């Protein structure tokens, strides 16, 4: 099928494109800029434009059968600084996309949501998809609102939305400016001989998922007829302190992190129950954390 | 205390102003226009302006200790026609209000949410405040998003938000253009000798609350230090068919409604569990439905 990947030049998007090509799909990419770490791929059609540019988006939508919406103009750690911008860019931007799709008769959409933020403080861990959505930061609030609208458009406007609630993805081609993911940020700083800062005491537990595993799930999900939310995680919790130990082993250097006060907004423990994705797509996280971090370190060293 | 009532000239707002005055508070009202059914009230300061006009809002906020946010530019039945407008006007408008309050050091806010839409299709009835928020129409999605942001602002920015999730309010001074409430719409049509239309088979059950009861709860809640959501309903479910029977008794005329196909978005059964408001505010619905409808009919006949 012909798929438009919005945000297809980003960290996750570039891996999703790889998996779509591997599955034999025709791929068109819409993004603000070309990929940062690779030249353009053979056989992929690239359209550059801003997510807020409705006409550019409509043009990009022409002739596609499904849309993968992987774009966010904000990050979990920074969206709270301007909720208005977050809502304007991402929520209204997505409604505009849905309206454009409706006008062109395109009903299939995969939306990349956030398993780490939409649930808020979890009642149970690992968290199933049926857990209430009680986001406590702007990033999660906007993602949850988009999910609600997708469900409303499914009920009333014939859309066919599937939602992937990703945990903490990591791997090659992740930005390392300090806003996107601890593994890439830490590896990049270690590689440059810099110190590592930790917010809180390092006990915060997250569910780290290698980006190729996430991309594979996205590729399977969009080509299916399934609708509704799917958690995407490893199903395993790892504390920041454990990550530091693995990084020390992988880089072969002792690490002395600098501890800083924890943020009020941090959820202390977040691990996803991924049995629904296993049941419906025969999918599970295939890359062990140690191996995934080794591969990421290899990539960081080559940059 | 000095309270700014945003939307204080509307149906619910005008009754809230009455109850605030009865409780001895100083009242300032911000609304697009003056009250439709009454002259301006003695001792109330009126400021006219649009909710989207940030500077007018900031001026109105000067000198107040608490804000009651009762405004919605959309209705449950019509918001779905333009979700983008709904988000723009109400969600971004509210974020703008919160930022203005933050800048002026005003932390107390009461937000009027919607007990009939934020829960979506309920798992249990009567619905407690702890029920997941799974709205399936735009009105409810925006209300739920605002609630999430209020909680985020409580955690991270020192706001003190209390949320009233109202069921189906009815009573004098309700608009009867057909978008706001079945009781007023039906009474107004009966009074004009017009026919009554029902979407679906009349089995839809709602929780009808007389507006003076709702206003009393709002007046108590804003002056308290309680935070978080409170359901506001009668705790009793009444079907549309039962409403028709009461209307026939009250107006003394036989009623032959015209039945139309039900809407996909309608929740079939919605009744709120109001024990939290009873426990924390000693509040409960005081007006029996029959008596409330009689009083509303009296008012409709005088218009």
The pair of chains with the biggest contact is: A-B, 29 and 30 residues
| β-sheet strand percentage of chain A | 15-25%
- The rounded distance between the terminal residues' Cα atoms of chain A is 34 Å
Main sheet strand line-up of chain A:
3-2-1-4-5-6-11
**Unreliable residue stretches of chain A:** none
Structural class of chain A, by secondary structure, is alpha/beta
Largest sheet of chain A: 7 strands, parallel
Average pLDDT across residues of chain A?
94
- Architecture (CATH level 2) name of the domain at 2-168 and 210-233 and 271-286 in chain A: 3-Layer(aba) Sandwich
CATH superfamily of the domain at 2-168 and 210-233 and 271-286 in chain A: NAD(P)-binding Rossmann-like Domain
How would you portray this structure in words?
The structure is a homodimer of 303-residue chains. Chain A is of the alpha/beta class and 303 residues long. Helices cover 39% and strands 18% of the residues of chain A. The first copy, chain A, is built from 9 helices and 13 strands. In chain A, the strands form 4 sheets. The first copy, chain A, has a 7-stranded parallel sheet, with helices on both faces. In chain A, strand 5 (108-114), helix 4 (138-157) and strand 6 (160-166) form a beta-alpha-beta unit. The longest helix of chain A has 22 residues, at 83-104. The model of chain A has no long low-confidence stretch (mean pLDDT 94). Chain A binds chain B through residues 80, 83-84, 87-88, 91-92, 95-96, 99, 132-138, 140-141, 144-145, 148-149, 151-152, 155-156, 264-265, and chain B through 80, 83-84, 87-88, 91-92, 95-96, 99, 132-138, 140-142, 144-145, 148-149, 151-152, 155-156, 264-265.
